[in-house]
């Protein structure tokens, strides 16, 4: 892990790794969070480093965690007729998970896989539920994270219902340039629901 460093506020009282520091900053952007809540949350957290193509979650397995992306990015995908269909990409300061599998205990229909070297903080959901029962701030944090993930999924679904392929590409240009800068053309085309050749034509018109 990277060197620890301190920051103003209650971080002056504790020493955390850079990954945890970034997570704490992210938490504060979502909801008020005390030093006591941070310490209570610790048993649920694990720092992880993954190489490209390693899995956070494999299709056919139950999801038991949320993953805060500290650096790098990963993709959610499933296989259809031998082809990878990408359904989501998670970049720095995103939370990756499978909400449905978490809630129901059913096996995941898709995988979440590192698309480049990846640093994450893993939230173990079983432990998270235990500490949430002790601290309302942690409970509020968990609900907020799940709301953000659900909102992202709704936006993706709305793209397909309301926009043409050209409009979907333009929307990504305006809303999330990281997708166009860091995701391969093949992966991006399946995410947009078009053939690679179609996406190349769309890009050439821009």
What can you see in these coordinates?
The chain is α+β, with helices and mostly antiparallel strands and 206 residues long. The protein has two domains: 9-145, Jelly Rolls (Sandwich); 163-206. 47% of the residues lie in helices and 21% in strands. The chain has nine helices and eight strands. The protein has helices spanning 18-30, 35-41, 99-104, 125-132, 136-162, 165-175, 177-182, 185-192, 196-205; strands at residues 45-50, 55-57, 65-71, 74-80, 83-90, 95-96, 111-114, 118-124. The strands form two sheets. Strands 1-8-3-6 form a four-stranded antiparallel β-sheet. Strand 4 (74-80) and strand 5 form a beta hairpin. Helix 4 packs across helix 5 (136-162) and helix 8 (185-192) packs across helix 9 (196-205). The model is unreliable at 1-13 (pLDDT under 50).
Main sheet specs: 4 strands, antiparallel
Number of helices: 9
Strand content: 15-25%
Low-confidence stretches: 1-13
Number of strands: 8
CATH domain topology of the largest domain: Jelly Rolls
* H/E element sequence: HHEEEEEEHEEHHHHHH
Spatial shape:
elongated
CATH class group of the largest domain: Mainly Beta
CATH architecture of the largest domain: Sandwich
Structural class based on helices, strands and sheet pairing: alpha+beta
Rg, alpha carbons: 18 Å
User: What separation lies between the terminal Cα atoms?
Assistant: 42 Å
Number of domains: 2
Portion of residues in helices? 40-55%
Widest β-sheet, arrangement of strands:
1-8-3-6
